[in-house]
Amino acid sequence: MIKAVLFDLDGTLLPMDQDEFVKAYFGGIAKKLAPYGYESKALIKSIWAGTEAMIKNNGEVTNETRFWEVFGSIYGERVNTDKPYFDEFYENEFSKISAVCSKNPEAYETVMHFKSNGLKIALATNPIFPSIATETRISWTGLKPSDFELYTTYENINYCKPNKKYYLEIASRLKVKPEECLMVGNDVSDDMPAFEAGMKVFLLTDCLINKNNTDISQFPNGSFKELREYVESL
User: Fold this and answer.
1) Residue 181 · residue 168 · CB < 8 Å
2) Which terminus of the chain, N or C, has less C-beta within 10 A?
Protein backbone atom coordinates (compact mmCIF):
# COMPACT_ATOMS: atom_id res chain seq x y z
CA MET A 1 0.00 0.00 0.00
CA ILE A 2 1.34 3.42 -0.98
CA LYS A 3 1.24 6.08 1.73
CA ALA A 4 3.59 8.67 0.22
CA VAL A 5 4.48 9.93 -3.24
CA LEU A 6 7.84 11.58 -3.83
CA PHE A 7 8.07 13.87 -6.84
CA ASP A 8 11.15 15.10 -8.62
CA LEU A 9 10.89 18.74 -9.72
CA ASP A 10 13.00 19.65 -12.76
CA GLY A 11 11.67 17.81 -15.79
CA THR A 12 8.94 16.14 -13.74
CA LEU A 13 6.60 18.65 -12.09
CA LEU A 14 8.42 21.44 -13.95
CA PRO A 15 8.80 20.68 -17.68
CA MET A 16 12.14 21.82 -19.06
CA ASP A 17 15.08 21.03 -21.26
CA GLN A 18 17.82 20.48 -18.70
CA ASP A 19 20.59 21.78 -20.95
CA GLU A 20 18.70 25.03 -21.58
CA PHE A 21 18.04 25.43 -17.85
CA VAL A 22 21.71 24.90 -16.94
CA LYS A 23 22.82 27.35 -19.63
CA ALA A 24 20.39 30.01 -18.41
CA TYR A 25 21.28 29.40 -14.76
CA PHE A 26 25.02 29.70 -15.24
CA GLY A 27 24.61 32.65 -17.58
CA GLY A 28 22.54 34.45 -14.98
CA ILE A 29 24.75 33.80 -11.98
CA ALA A 30 27.93 34.60 -13.95
CA LYS A 31 26.46 37.95 -15.02
CA LYS A 32 25.46 38.71 -11.42
CA LEU A 33 28.86 37.90 -9.95
CA ALA A 34 31.08 39.39 -12.68
CA PRO A 35 31.11 42.93 -11.16
CA TYR A 36 32.47 41.44 -7.94
CA GLY A 37 35.54 39.92 -9.54
CA TYR A 38 34.31 36.42 -10.41
CA GLU A 39 35.51 35.43 -13.89
CA SER A 40 32.73 33.49 -15.59
CA LYS A 41 34.52 30.29 -16.63
CA ALA A 42 36.32 29.95 -13.29
CA LEU A 43 33.09 30.63 -11.38
CA ILE A 44 31.13 28.01 -13.31
CA LYS A 45 33.92 25.46 -12.87
CA SER A 46 33.94 26.16 -9.13
CA ILE A 47 30.17 25.81 -8.80
CA TRP A 48 30.39 22.47 -10.61
CA ALA A 49 33.12 21.38 -8.16
CA GLY A 50 30.89 22.29 -5.23
CA THR A 51 27.95 20.51 -6.83
CA GLU A 52 29.98 17.35 -7.35
CA ALA A 53 30.99 17.47 -3.69
CA MET A 54 27.33 17.67 -2.66
CA ILE A 55 26.43 14.71 -4.85
CA LYS A 56 29.19 12.70 -3.16
CA ASN A 57 28.26 13.92 0.32
CA ASN A 58 28.48 11.14 2.90
CA GLY A 59 25.99 12.53 5.41
CA GLU A 60 28.41 14.05 7.91
CA VAL A 61 27.42 17.65 7.08
CA THR A 62 24.61 19.32 5.16
CA ASN A 63 24.96 19.79 1.44
CA GLU A 64 25.09 23.53 2.06
CA THR A 65 28.13 23.16 4.31
CA ARG A 66 29.78 20.80 1.86
CA PHE A 67 29.27 23.18 -1.07
CA TRP A 68 30.72 26.20 0.68
CA GLU A 69 33.64 24.18 2.03
CA VAL A 70 34.68 23.35 -1.52
CA PHE A 71 33.80 26.74 -3.00
CA GLY A 72 35.65 28.46 -0.15
CA SER A 73 38.72 26.29 -0.67
CA ILE A 74 38.91 27.75 -4.19
CA TYR A 75 38.18 31.41 -3.50
CA GLY A 76 39.26 31.76 0.11
CA GLU A 77 37.72 33.82 2.88
CA ARG A 78 36.26 36.34 0.45
CA VAL A 79 33.26 34.03 0.00
CA ASN A 80 32.11 34.92 3.51
CA THR A 81 31.78 38.54 2.40
CA ASP A 82 30.47 37.78 -1.06
CA LYS A 83 27.84 35.18 -0.14
CA PRO A 84 25.11 37.87 0.07
CA TYR A 85 25.62 38.50 -3.66
CA PHE A 86 24.73 34.88 -4.34
CA ASP A 87 21.66 35.26 -2.13
CA GLU A 88 20.64 38.36 -4.07
CA PHE A 89 20.84 36.41 -7.31
CA TYR A 90 18.40 33.79 -6.03
CA GLU A 91 16.11 36.46 -4.60
CA ASN A 92 15.98 38.48 -7.81
CA GLU A 93 17.58 37.41 -11.10
CA PHE A 94 16.93 33.69 -10.67
CA SER A 95 13.22 34.17 -11.38
CA LYS A 96 14.04 35.15 -14.99
CA ILE A 97 15.12 31.56 -15.68
CA SER A 98 11.45 30.57 -15.68
CA ALA A 99 11.50 31.68 -19.33
CA VAL A 100 13.20 28.40 -20.30
CA CYS A 101 10.68 26.29 -18.38
CA SER A 102 7.05 25.53 -19.13
CA LYS A 103 4.03 24.51 -17.11
CA ASN A 104 2.01 21.31 -17.25
CA PRO A 105 -1.42 21.68 -15.61
CA GLU A 106 -1.49 17.90 -15.14
CA ALA A 107 1.42 18.16 -12.71
CA TYR A 108 -0.62 20.40 -10.40
CA GLU A 109 -3.75 18.31 -10.86
CA THR A 110 -1.93 15.07 -10.11
CA VAL A 111 -0.37 16.39 -6.90
CA MET A 112 -3.75 17.71 -5.73
CA HIS A 113 -5.44 14.44 -6.69
CA PHE A 114 -3.02 12.40 -4.60
CA LYS A 115 -3.29 14.81 -1.66
CA SER A 116 -7.09 14.62 -1.75
CA ASN A 117 -6.78 10.85 -1.51
CA GLY A 118 -4.80 11.12 1.71
CA LEU A 119 -1.33 10.45 0.35
CA LYS A 120 1.67 12.25 1.80
CA ILE A 121 3.44 14.33 -0.84
CA ALA A 122 7.15 15.16 -0.77
CA LEU A 123 9.29 17.06 -3.25
CA ALA A 124 12.39 14.96 -3.81
CA THR A 125 14.34 17.38 -5.97
CA ASN A 126 18.09 16.90 -5.92
CA PRO A 127 19.09 19.16 -2.99
CA ILE A 128 21.85 21.15 -4.63
CA PHE A 129 20.00 24.49 -4.46
CA PRO A 130 19.18 26.72 -1.49
CA SER A 131 15.61 26.78 -0.24
CA ILE A 132 14.80 30.11 -1.87
CA ALA A 133 15.72 28.70 -5.31
CA THR A 134 13.68 25.56 -4.71
CA GLU A 135 10.67 27.52 -3.49
CA THR A 136 10.89 29.77 -6.55
CA ARG A 137 10.97 26.78 -8.90
CA ILE A 138 8.00 25.26 -7.08
CA SER A 139 6.03 28.45 -7.77
CA TRP A 140 6.70 28.07 -11.50
CA THR A 141 4.62 24.87 -11.45
CA GLY A 142 1.58 26.59 -9.94
CA LEU A 143 2.15 24.76 -6.67
CA LYS A 144 3.21 26.17 -3.30
CA PRO A 145 5.88 24.95 -0.88
CA SER A 146 3.07 24.31 1.62
CA ASP A 147 1.59 21.74 -0.77
CA PHE A 148 4.43 19.41 0.26
CA GLU A 149 5.04 17.81 3.63
CA LEU A 150 8.73 17.97 2.84
CA TYR A 151 10.88 19.48 0.10
CA THR A 152 14.60 18.88 0.07
CA THR A 153 17.10 21.74 -0.23
CA TYR A 154 20.82 21.97 0.32
CA GLU A 155 20.21 23.33 3.81
CA ASN A 156 18.05 20.50 5.15
CA ILE A 157 19.61 17.23 4.04
CA ASN A 158 23.05 15.61 3.94
CA TYR A 159 22.75 13.42 0.84
CA CYS A 160 21.95 13.75 -2.86
CA LYS A 161 20.57 11.58 -5.60
CA PRO A 162 21.29 8.86 -6.58
CA ASN A 163 22.49 7.84 -3.07
CA LYS A 164 19.84 5.52 -1.66
CA LYS A 165 20.40 7.11 1.78
CA TYR A 166 18.80 10.24 0.36
CA TYR A 167 15.59 8.32 -0.29
CA LEU A 168 15.73 6.50 3.04
CA GLU A 169 16.08 9.83 4.85
CA ILE A 170 12.97 11.19 3.15
CA ALA A 171 10.96 8.10 4.10
CA SER A 172 12.16 8.47 7.69
CA ARG A 173 11.10 12.11 7.86
CA LEU A 174 7.70 11.27 6.40
CA LYS A 175 7.35 8.53 9.02
CA VAL A 176 6.65 5.85 6.43
CA LYS A 177 8.49 2.74 5.35
CA PRO A 178 10.41 2.88 2.05
CA GLU A 179 8.15 0.21 0.60
CA GLU A 180 5.18 2.52 1.30
CA CYS A 181 6.69 5.18 -0.97
CA LEU A 182 6.50 5.81 -4.70
CA MET A 183 9.23 7.91 -6.32
CA VAL A 184 8.21 9.73 -9.50
CA GLY A 185 10.92 11.22 -11.68
CA ASN A 186 12.13 11.74 -15.24
CA ASP A 187 15.82 10.89 -14.81
CA VAL A 188 16.66 7.20 -15.03
CA SER A 189 20.05 7.56 -13.33
CA ASP A 190 18.97 9.89 -10.51
CA ASP A 191 15.37 8.90 -9.74
CA MET A 192 15.06 5.20 -10.41
CA PRO A 193 17.71 4.25 -7.78
CA ALA A 194 14.93 4.87 -5.24
CA PHE A 195 14.05 1.28 -6.11
CA GLU A 196 17.31 0.20 -4.44
CA ALA A 197 16.07 1.88 -1.26
CA GLY A 198 12.98 -0.32 -1.33
CA MET A 199 10.61 2.18 -2.92
CA LYS A 200 8.33 1.72 -5.87
CA VAL A 201 9.20 3.93 -8.82
CA PHE A 202 7.48 5.51 -11.80
CA LEU A 203 9.43 7.03 -14.69
CA LEU A 204 7.71 10.09 -16.13
CA THR A 205 8.63 10.21 -19.81
CA ASP A 206 7.48 13.73 -20.78
CA CYS A 207 11.02 15.14 -20.33
CA LEU A 208 12.90 11.86 -20.16
CA ILE A 209 16.61 11.84 -19.28
CA ASN A 210 18.29 8.53 -20.01
CA LYS A 211 22.01 9.21 -20.37
CA ASN A 212 23.01 5.55 -20.29
CA ASN A 213 20.30 4.37 -22.70
CA THR A 214 18.86 2.08 -20.04
CA ASP A 215 15.98 -0.17 -21.04
CA ILE A 216 13.12 1.73 -19.41
CA SER A 217 10.62 -1.07 -19.92
CA GLN A 218 11.78 -2.44 -16.57
CA PHE A 219 10.11 0.53 -14.85
CA PRO A 220 6.46 1.55 -14.80
CA ASN A 221 6.52 4.61 -17.06
CA GLY A 222 4.47 7.08 -19.01
CA SER A 223 2.59 10.37 -18.63
CA PHE A 224 0.81 11.87 -15.63
CA LYS A 225 -2.39 10.15 -16.75
CA GLU A 226 -0.63 6.80 -16.69
CA LEU A 227 0.93 7.68 -13.34
CA ARG A 228 -2.51 8.23 -11.80
CA GLU A 229 -3.70 4.93 -13.28
CA TYR A 230 -0.66 3.16 -11.89
CA VAL A 231 -1.24 4.52 -8.37
CA GLU A 232 -4.90 3.50 -8.54
CA SER A 233 -3.80 -0.02 -9.47
CA LEU A 234 -1.74 -0.16 -6.28
Assistant:
1) no
2) N
